[in-house]
Amino acid sequence: MGAQADAPALNSLGFAKAPADTRVVVAMSGGVDSSVVAAELAAEGYDVVGVTLQLYDHGAALAKKGACCAGRDIHDARRVAEAMGFPHYVLDYENTFREAVIDEFADSYLAGATPVPCIRCNERVKFKDLLQTARDLDADCMATGHYIQRKSGPQGAELHMAADPVRDQSYFLFSTTAEQLDYLRFPLGHLPTKAETRALALKHGLSVADKPDSQDICFVPDGDYAAVIRKLRPNAADPGEIVDMDGNVVGQHAGVIHYTIGQRRGLGIGGHADPLYVVRLDPDARRVIVGPRTALATRTVPLREINWLGDAALNSQAEWHVSVKLRSTRPPRPAILRPLGDGEAEVTLLSPEEGISPGQACVFYDPEGTRIFGGGWIWKGR
User: Which segments of the chain are extended strands (E)?
Assistant: First the structure.
């Protein structure tokens, strides 16, 4: 039959060796998703090592629900590892997380942006430092509980949306590099619904089978961003003026950090013929600028820190016809992507979008399929 017939078949993680000879580090948050990944791989016979990151002072978060990587979650991850019989380690990444994620979150808000710290955490902590730890442990790959798919293409590993559009986390993983993607695995991305994940947790008898999903940013478990920023930056809540687009003062505010672009409620400036929305923030002047809804519509979006996952180089074409997602909760929409060099680009939307804010991500998708071509960070431009 020849040598080719004798080649070992690929295991479920894509390696030409037995699961028992394949070491995989599983990033365990303590939730049901990553717990199921670890349990399934252990049950398949892989050499599983569970790792949980302590990202902030979990002692202060023990009583808070809906936060990941807190004390309760570390305990839950450890229980899953004990039940399934694989080693589990807790790594203290508090300082790294503070410097790489929390400080930028606070500074971005103070600069009038609307940051997405979960993307920065994946980019700067989980898929950087933790991934290096996995390599140091001689792991063949690192697996996570993210709902996204990694597929083999003619040019290497490709990133694709999850099979379940409700759970798809591609918006938060756009900055995954080709090198990282080569090492990562996402075993849940093909599941049609979250119900299948919970069914697998029940099959393995996991204590987290009915644990609720986390809803908030892990270090803001009650959703009060302003309170966290006031604690980090005590001068952040300086009062100032609310002005219209002509500069006329129409009200007062208790701090720019309390407002986001597109906000309508809670402005305290009633009595106008038409509803007013926050259309711009000017932190330097401590001003919140309001205007009609039409002023929120944008067609041109400047981007920087581009991460490109296409087969050909980004600058090999003057423009790319893609679909883009400008908020995690909004569907992709048609656009033209124009590279500008030095990691910058400009996106032109075929139809205007409202409420686009600096600090958010713009993620590129294949208009004809499920592939993700990367993305960039929205900024104010030059």
Answer: 23-27, 47-54, 88-92, 141-143, 148-153, 156-161, 184-185, 240-243, 249-253, 277-282, 287-291, 297-308, 320-325, 333-341, 344-354, 361-365, 372-378
C-alpha to C-alpha distances, 66 to 7, 70, 178, 230, nearest whole angstrom: 47, 10, 32, 21
pLDDT of residue 176: 97
The active-site residue out of 68, 69, 118, 218 is 218
The pLDDT-based confidence of 83 (bands split at 50, 70, 90) is very high
* Catalytic-labelled residue, pool 69, 121, 141, 362: 121
Q: What is the DSSP letter of 257?
A: G
Cα distance between residue 207 and residue 110, in whole Å: 41
CB 292 within 8 A of CB 336: no
- Which residues 6+ apart lie within 8 Å of 378 measured at CB? 301, 302, 303, 326, 356, 357, 358, 359, 360, 361, 362
Residues β-bridged to residue 362: 376
The yes-or-no answer on residue 362 being catalytic is: no
d(CA 67, CA 217): 7
Q: Are the C-beta atoms of residues 325 and 365 closer than 8 Å to each other?
A: yes
Query: Dihedral, CA atoms, 216, 60, 115, 262, nearest 10 degrees?
Result: 60
pTM: 0.90
The string of pLDDT tens digits covering residues 120-176 is: 999 999 999 999 999 999 999 999 999 999 999 999 999 999 999 999 999 999 999
> Would you give the distance in Å from CA 50 to the centre of its chain?
21
Determine the pLDDT at residue 162. 98
- pLDDT, one tens digit per residue, over 283-328 is 889 999 999 999 999 999 999 999 999 999 999 999 999 999 999 9
